[in-house]
Design goal:
By secondary structure, the protein is an alpha/beta fold. It has two domains: 183 residues, Rossmann fold (3-Layer(aba) Sandwich), CATH 3.40.50.620; 134 residues, Argininosuccinate synthetase, chain A, domain 2, CATH 3.90.1260. Helix content is 43%, strand content 16%. It has eleven helices and twelve strands. It has a five-stranded parallel β-sheet with strand order 3-2-1-4-5, sandwiched between helices. Helix 5 runs parallel beside helix 6 and helix 9 crosses helix 10. The radius of gyration is 21 Å and the shape is globular. The protein starts with a helix and ends in an 8-residue tail after the last helix.
Length: 332
């Protein structure tokens, strides 16, 4: 589709009248284009870019901050690393988080980020929130759902969906408007210490994955021949120490990612059943999650009665299903 056709499609869409809009800003394609859409299409008076740190790494946070400054915005940085690791991830480990092979990482962070953005938007007197998730994925539902939980009176702007923009339409708009964004992986990637999502469903069925795409994972051919060993200590179902050294999850998970990843552990390549019943090939990188959850299940096998193990499997599966489907804050 040509640029003029994309713009005509946008112009034909009803535009809500809003003045002060908050946006969950990462510096990626969707949120960066979202800033320009707020200026050019929604014509807001004020934009509040909120960057939530859930442990995606200093490089990612710095990129987001620098990108905001390029757009003449001073981002609001919210540090949620401790809450994510010590509350959300601890619950994920208790529940052996597994939605059909996926350790429900982005499923959690999107809901945490959405809650923080909604609460901050209300505190700052915003009348709207822009939700910049891709139009084909699950995150648009998760974030929209949580925005309405915590800020029901605010207008939720969803340009990718409302304007029916594909990834290529977004890139075309960025090019035409001079929006400073690069996407090295079509579909982008989402980094947390628990799991890294690659391309968000944009990987073709028979597409080979380039080895230079990985952050932690080494293919078995490139992994060392000499094994490495880690001793994990659990108390009350939670990981508390590695090799006898007590440490918070914010330290232990990156350590295990590094060691397990370089030894050929952590690749997840699955067919995933999305929220809207769409199947897609999803590729993830999760060395620490793989190791921690495997050890945790073995410990449960040693400690729990068979009836407890069978019951817990059912509860764990329901927990993962609900978190994946954007129901972290559901009363159940």
């Amino acid at each position: 589709m040509k640029l003029e056709d994309i713009l005509k499609k946008i112009e034909a869409t009803p535009i809500p009248k809003v003045k002060k809009c908050a946006i969950a800003f990462s510096g990626g394609l969707d949120s960066t284009l979202g800033i320009e859409l707020l200026r050019r299409i929604y014509k807001v008076d004020e934009i509040v870019a909120i960057n939530v740190d859930v442990g995606q790494g200093e490089e990612e946070i710095t990129m987001g901050r620098d990108r905001a400054l390029q757009l003449n915005l001073k981002p609001v940085i919210m540090d949620a690393k401790k809450e994510f690791t010590e509350i959300w991830l601890k619950k994920a480990i208790w529940a052996n988080s597994d939605y059909n092979g996926y350790p429900v990482s982005t499923s959690m962070t999107r809901q945490l980020i959405a809650r923080i953005v909604a609460e901050k938007a209300r505190d700052l007197g915003c009348d709207s929130i822009l939700e910049g998730s891709t139009g084909r994925g699950n995150d648009q539902y998760r974030m929209h759902n949580v925005f309405k939980y915590f800020a029901p009176e605010l207008e939720i702007l969803v340009p990718v969906r409302d304007f029916d923009l594909t990834r290529y339409h977004e890139l075309e708009l960025c090019k035409a408007w001079g929006v400073p964004v690069e996407e090295f992986i079509i579909g982008g990637d989402d980094k947390t210490m628990w799991c890294r999502s690659i391309a968000s469903g944009a990987v073709d069925l028979n597409q080979e994955i380039s080895e230079d795409i990985w952050m932690w994972y080494k293919t078995p051919e490139k992994a060392p021949d000499k094994p490495e060993f880690l001793t994990l200590t659990f108390e009350a179902g939670a990981l508390t120490a590695v090799d006898g050294k007590e440490m918070p999850l914010s330290n232990s998970i990156p350590l295990i990612n590094k060691v397990a990843g370089r030894n050929g552990i952590g690749l997840i390549d699955v067919f995933e059943d999305g929220i809207m019943d769409l199947k897609s090939r999803e590729v993830y990188e999760a060395p620490a999650a793989h190791v921690i959850l495997a050890v945790k299940r073995d410990l449960e096998g040693a400690c729990l009665a068979k009836e407890e193990r069978q019951f817990k499997k059912m509860v764990d599966a329901r927990w993962a299903y609900m978190v994946y489907h954007g129901e972290w804050f559901h009363p159940l």
